[in-house]
């Protein structure tokens, strides 16, 4: 019997790369590091964050994408309400945070909830209050520090770079997983 896996069986969105589907693994404010168990499709607790920090935005992945770190493409979704675990959200892409995690590229797409009027007027990173990007950067640089792991945020880039990264992750997904997982 085939089982449903959110990574492979949910649409990545109808208006790529401008708007994507985000599947939320970690709600904003969480200290739990949850992630999709790739085999079962269930959500697992990877660990509890070891430092006094919490996720600055809803965090998850874009289905049917694949990156060099062997995971789907990460996404941070800004929204005025808490988005629960495994919720599917239509997200408007506004930029990308490029970072290195243990010397491995680990891009994070930054988006806003498309159906939240309190944030969906943001069209690019420059529209955000300045503290938001700093908060994201500090979180990702700090949360692994007490685990003695090195994370470096290299730069924030705009929409066009985010679109390119999304398209590359779709292409890599299709090359890696083949026609049986391609979106209709």
From TrEMBL:
Top-rank taxon, per record: Bacteria
Chain positions recorded as Mg(2+) 1 binding sites: 69, 74, 106
Catalytic activity: diphosphate + H2O = 2 phosphate + H(+)
GO MF entry, a single one: inorganic diphosphate phosphatase activity
Cofactor annotation: Mg(2+)
Main location: cytoplasm
GO cellular component term, pick one: cytoplasm
Residues that coordinate or bind Mg(2+) 2: 74
Entry keywords, A to Z: Cytoplasm, Hydrolase, Magnesium, Metal-binding
Positions that bind substrate: 33, 47, 59, 143
Similarity remark: Belongs to the PPase family.
Protein name listed in UniProt: Inorganic pyrophosphatase
Organism of provenance: Hymenobacter setariae
Lineage: Bacteria, Pseudomonadati, Bacteroidota, Cytophagia, Cytophagales
